[in-house]
What does this fold into?
Amino acid sequence: MDSETPMQDDGISIRDLRKNYRIGSNVVTIFSELNMSIDAGDFVAIIGPSGSGKSTLLNLIGGIDRPDGGDIGFGHARISHMSESALAKWRGANVGFVFQFYNLMPMLTAEQNVELPLLLTKLTARQRRERVETILSLVGLADRRKHLPSELSGGQQQRIGIARALASDPKLLLCDEPTGDLDRDSAEDVLAMLRILNADLGKTIIMVTHDDRAARSAKRILRLDKGKFVEREAA
Ligand SMILES: Nc1ncnc2c1ncn2[C@@H]1O[C@H](COP(=O)(O)OP(=O)(O)O)[C@@H](O)[C@H]1O
Ligand SMILES: [Mg+2]
It folds into this structure.
């Protein structure tokens, strides 16, 4: 990052990013010179064909996978060059993940699922409980706090998934097909919630989707194909 182009705090900058997968003796390059910038507070949809590397990219940005080359910056942090322990700490403080199939723990209640990431923090039990209550209210599910995931609809489970992602108050939400398993009405609820989190709480959101309507919730749409990005106008 040069001093001529000061980066907004907590913006994301990707430079010449490379990711390979080794399958047996073959090396498959998913992308080799990927570049993009995302401002803090943006809401970006990433679309593109299946297998184009959308999930891979999200996992690299969130620091749960490592690149084979290039640079990922988040504000002043170069996350592509952090040690595993620094990366885990950075991730815990800055990133919330939302998954297509929610990834809730089936034996835990809604509130226990939301509390889970907070067990790794220094918050006291009382502080954790207060935080969980606030977030469950934010996603409109305070009255479902004692329910198990199996006792919730898909849309409600995804709202719990979003609540869990918000627990540690991260600046960045990474959502991989968050509406991919939902009916239209539930999908709209989840998208409305993401728009509010972006507009009112200033969360930076990157959402992978193959749903055009979901993509139109974002401020920007980027299409990833054959290892390159093409910007598309958001409607
Ligand atoms: N752990 C892995 N090992 C080997 N190949 C992988 C792995 N994860 C993904 N791939 C391959 O990388 C490519 C991109 O995958 P992915 O990021 O999941 O694409 P998308 O999310 O766009 O559908 C695919 O060809 C996939 O088969
Ligand atoms: Mg994917």
Confidence is low (pLDDT under 50) at residues 1-6. The beta strands are 12-23, 26-38, 43-47, 69-74, 77-78, 95-98, 172-176, 204-208, 220-225, 228-232. The first helix runs from residue 54 to 61. The helical segments are 54-61, 84-94, 110-115, 125-138, 154-166, 184-199, 212-215.
